[in-house]
Amino acid sequence: MAANKIRIAKDKAELVKSLTLSDNNSAPFQTYADVIAFAAALGKQRKKRSPLGEISKREPGAIDVDIFVSRGYDMAIKLIAIAETKNPQILSHLDEQLEAERLQIFEEYANGGLEILREELRGAADYTDRLLLVLISERDNQHRSDEEFDLSKFLF
Q1: Rounded to two decimals, what is the model's pTM?
Q2: Which class for 32: exposed (0-12), middle (13-18), buried (19 or more C-beta within 10 A)?
Q3: What percent of the chain has pLDDT above 90?
Q4: Which of 57, 66, 82, 125 is the most buried (most CB within 10 A)?
């Protein structure tokens, strides 16, 4: 594991890029970190955690954790880890092994979420509209408990 980096599976790199704003598109997310944080929340919500397999070395490569912190996603990383392990020690910043485990849990839920998104967005011309439909469907079809993640906060 690259220290303090969130990695992306090679087979999801193009999807992450296509969901991110660039000069020639109007994608639903501004940064790769936004895509990964959303995907991790979706993966956790739908209980889909997937090992990364081969890691993307090119665009987008591993993302420094500081970017997630600067965008306010550090709490999501911590919440997903503690919900998964039920162990408050996972939050320790003094133990590098626990920090690596925390990041791996986040990466694997993000990977699972990206697998879900790949299926949900298949054939969509406008990812933003399709994502809104996914979120509305999540809200309407699920009875929320206090333990579930609320993905609607990603709506603008």
Answers
A1: 0.84
A2: buried
A3: 49
A4: 82
